[in-house]
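Regression check, phosphoric acid mono(formamide)ester case 317:
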Amino acid sequence: MRSFLGRDILSLKDFSRDEFLRVFQVAEDLKPYARDRRNTDLLKNKTLLTAFYQPSTRTRLSTEAAMHRLGGHVLGFSDAKMTRAGDFYQESIKDTFHMLEYYADVIAIRHFQQGAPAEAARWASVPVINCGDGWGEHPTQVLTDLYTIWLEKGTLDGLRVLCVGDMRMRTMHSILYAASQFDLSADVVSPPEMSLLPEFKAELDAMGVSYREVPSVADCLADADVIYMEPVVQADYTQSRVERGSETGRTPEAYRVTRPLLADRAKRDAIILHSLPRMDELPEDVDETRHQRYWVEAFNGVVMRMALLSLVLGAAE
Ligand code: CP
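Current build output:
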């Protein structure tokens, strides 16, 4: 297994099975701090910089919370409009990150352009963590999701995952790449205009990922061990920011997971993950069902980011 020390976390294509399991183990070791709301001094001499060029609630704040739990320092921006990258100068990724590396020991970036974190990593000698890049990938979210499945099911092998939502979405890319390292098969449900892109399918085929495209949730819900959701009513992730219009549209029934449908078709032990935010694809009354795991997933997001920061900064091996 390669060392995580100094490593950029850019894509789950880079992760081997052993590396996934190592990250989960480090997360388990660090979980008591988050569970007991305690801070440690493992990273007391380290600084995290969050460079967020797109809105975020969970990813930025859980990464910052993780660094605080580990006793480190945090600085950064959550709106590029208040930096020279977002004003008259339109400062490049190269110039920005060439400089930011002097301000911190690790950089977490979210950007609306696919590949921007990889470009940042070319110019920063400190580890760069991809916190979502356009339609590209969302490695820290999907590590959190996989960690949650691993905890809930005790394994990532022999499971069928129902992926429902916009298949252009970065989480869908990351989870299907990760499936190549486990005995995970996927049922993929999306509107035709949001289906898996041909080049992505070619990658999955080359990686040996087992998946089938299914017209509606109702057609495959009975087979699912894990229901993995994204909205189909959502923002354009290639934009820096999208304001909500007066009419957002409604999610067609084929892409919704509702309480009556779960009661009628789902396995008793099927779990639902959703990276959030949600729209009407996942009604709030599902929160009260045995299947809901998205709130513990949110807690696990802090633990996972503690693990990643510890690993890339050398506080864990
Ligand atoms: N899950 C997720 O990426 O949420 P945020 O956009 O709030 O970070």
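Comparison notes: The longest helix spans residues 17-35. The chain has two domains: 17-138+298-312, 139-296. No diff flagged against the previous build.
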